[in-house]
Every structure is written in structure tokens, then in C-alpha cells.
């Protein structure tokens, strides 16, 4: 039993075979998923997919790359959608210093506003971090984000920062990079961080794990991530699946 905590089945890459992809996931033992919507185009489809599948849920938020496009009405919309029975988290949100579409100060403002919103509706948050680790940690502390906690999505930072995030009530989610030969940090995190603080994800259609690197990622491949975590920890795939699924249910306040 596996829970892929971060999928983009609402991406255009799945328009031709979305239902077949979901079927393959179930056949691989991936029983639960969260579809992440992050702008005006992807949020409605995330909700739609979640509504039409029992064990698929949605997260709604605003991606930092597009922070410059967010208006107050979008924030109100996200707040309204947070009451939907299939919405389990706010996000993805955060900071992205790789792309320069949105100025840093705008990204920070939109990030802070979404944390504030999540605290109002008492929902966990999903954090996107690209080349912005210290600023993200600082903002999470300043905004007391530990009140709701959440997920450090597709974590690629150090063991030390992971522990700081865990102290703030965040789970560390490992994706495809933990399977990459030269990805030292995710492997170190998988080994060092207790399984009770870990989640697994694909971030599909991006970051397909080895041996599928460079192809379209899909939820069925989260099994490859879980297998790598199991190997690094010297435990069974079943234990990784059961514990990370239990962690996800606890975070998202789902009944198991």
C-alpha cells in the first residue's frame, strides 16, 4: 500500500491517458494520491479528478513561479475551495529562485499570505523550494507555520535542515531524485531521518525515478522511490509503504 503525496495528474501530459495512468498506479499498489493544483488552470482539474476517484484527493495553492499573477480574488478562491471535502492541503507554495518570472519580494508576499490563509482554515501546507532553502526556513519560522505543519515537497536539502523542518511539524517527502546515482543528499536524508517523518511522492510528470529517468513520470513509479528508501534503510518495502501511508493519513486528517 502506497500513498503518492504529490502528483500533477492535472497536467497536460496526461490528457490522452489519465485513466490508464491511474489504473496502472492502483495495479502497482499505489492506492492513494494527492493531485496538486497551483494556478487558475490546474486547480479546477485537480478538484475534478479528486471528485471522480475515491482515493484521490486535492491540494490547492499558488506556485511561486507564478506569484506575480496572483490576485486577491485568487486567494479568496483558494480559501473557498479549502472547504471542499476532497481538499486536504494548501499548496504548493514557497519560493523558486531558479526562474525569474516573479520577483523575490512578490514571491515572499504570496508565500506569507498563503501560510496565513492555511492557519485560518487549519490545513497543512505543501512547500515548493528551489534554490531558496534558508529564506523558506526563515519565513516558516517567522509565520509560525508549525501551527499547521505540512510537507517539504521533493526534498533535496541537508539532513540538518530536514531536522529543522521536522521540529516545525513538517514531513520530509522524497521523490525520484532519491533513486538517482549521484543524488547524495536525498540518500543521506533517507538513511538518517526516521521513517515516522518521511513521505514518498513522484511529482509526476516530472522527475521520473531510475531506471525511467528522462521519461514521463507517473504515480505507479512511486513504488521505485519507496523501494529505494527501503533499501537505504535496510527494511522492507511493506514497512515503508505502511508507515509513509500512515504518516500521510495523519497529516491530511484522513480516516484509515
Automatic annotation (TrEMBL):
**Cross-referenced PROSITE patterns, in alphabetical order?**
TATD_1 (PS01137), TATD_3 (PS01091)
Q: What are the entry keywords?
A: Hydrolase, Metal-binding
- Give GO terms: molecular function aspect only: hydrolase activity
Task: Return the CDD domains for the record.
Answer: TatD_DNAse
InterPro entries on file: DNase_TatD-rel_CS (IPR018228), Metal_Hydrolase (IPR032466), TatD-like (IPR001130), TatD/YcfH-like (IPR015991)
Top-rank taxon: Bacteria
- Known NCBIfam families for this protein? YchF/TatD family DNA exonuclease (TIGR00010)
Protein name (Swiss-Prot/TrEMBL): Hydrolase TatD
Tell me the organism: Pontibacillus salipaludis
